[in-house]
Amino acid sequence: MSNPSEIIFGHTVEGLLLALKGRLDGPLRAKLKDAGLDLDRKLEPAYPNAIWQKVLHLCATELFPDVSMNEAQWRLGERFVAGYFETNMGRALQAVVKLLGPARTLERTSRNLASGSNFLHVEVERLAATDYRIKVNEGGTYPEFIGSICHHGTLTTGVKGLTTVVESRQGRAAIYRMRW
To answer: Taking a C-beta distance cutoff of 8 angstroms, is the pair 167, 151 a contact?
Structure first.
């Protein structure tokens, strides 16, 4: 279970909400409120990770009911990246990664992911020029969400042939392999 001192910053939640445009009325809105995200109020500066994990599960279930939860989390991660790039923080990040290219973007993954929370720690290991292993201390309940964020964020650089897989997980930690 997540630690109560672990928080997700409001701009990260804003990115998810932008990814959910057109889907935030009706049952999902009430479910999010029950989970601790009241959309009738101004976004908080931060939310507990436990609430974030519930919100991710609810959103994935609502948006992608006909696929496995792992696949739904991957698809939600893709939508999240698009939504996040609509935020002020996201627009700045997108401009930077387009300039850096895939290798340098991956080497900055720890900084990029850390901007969304106070607890996410990432180790990036370069195995070859186009082969990386990313170790994340908190892959979430479904590590496909973070894997998808890494994958789709890196695609923004214009890289071709990128593959990303969840190589393994141990407890809350996950290891991803990214190649192109």
So the answer is: no
